[in-house]
């Protein structure tokens, strides 16, 4: 599918970085024929960009089984309506973001944002996308989606990578990715557009519009999940699905090789302390099914997947996932804590740096068979029958 370059859009909401502008084009290479990519209710969400990995062992959806450890000897389209210089200035501020402590954060939204929006964070976002897609058995989603959806919404789209691949998968569908900041590439599929909005505000997309709504890793972003589910239900067509996914850092191990006094465990507690203090508890995914039931959703399904901390598993697919998680933790987790540890908890920066150094040393030890639950891949259907 030819990609559309939105760099000529007078709104100018592109990222401005050539490497990121080429991201969408790069991800679209080596796709199989479109007719082979379409999903039906039996094979949901096969990711076209990961066909080379299909020979790997398939994912275990329940993942309550223990993971066998390996043995080794070596250690653009943005809509901007600005008719005055004042509104243009506001739009410019949104594009630039807010710089703090050498990182860039979103300037737009109802609440202060704790995750950066710079290239370093977007690279982390892309790495996470590959990890989660591999974890789901090379699928972009696991809920039932018709083979010819007309409209798909990606909440908190981040770098836009999931929306780009779904737009490639369903060329007849209109795909919308929404986020607080214009960090997505300019070169995108023609059926994809990005919008700047705070999904905790009132939604303006109307009723019964979407065949599928997707959200993933909305870390420290949502303060009112029941309201989000209520708005999603209104926007979904009857019989359409909402799917959410989140990692909850309740680090564990099946063989008690994770020390109870580890710095790794302490960093997880810091995340829970920060998120609870600002009203975005990291434990909320544990309540998703309850909220969905209360909002009247049907066919609610929750699955839990284990993410190995490092490449300790014997299984090759899980080993690759563990390598991705190790890179994410060692090189990317500071993105989550950088703004919040001092501002939210008033913590001592020197102590935190020492703690993180200890944790990084721990997570490379493949004798520590720990894992993170990417739990709570949850999907549910709006009552009614799809047309």
From TrEMBL:
It comes from the Eukaryota. Residues 1-10 have a biased composition (Acidic residues). Residues 17-34 have a biased composition (Basic and acidic residues). InterPro entries: SAM-dependent_MTases_sf (IPR029063). Pfam families: Methyltransf_23. Residues 1-79 are annotated as: Disordered. Residues 50-61 have a biased composition (Polar residues). Belongs to the methyltransferase superfamily. LaeA methyltransferase family. PANTHER family: LAEA-LIKE, PUTATIVE (AFU_ORTHOLOGUE AFUA_8G01930)-RELATED (PTHR43591:SF31), METHYLTRANSFERASE (PTHR43591). This is Methyltransferase.
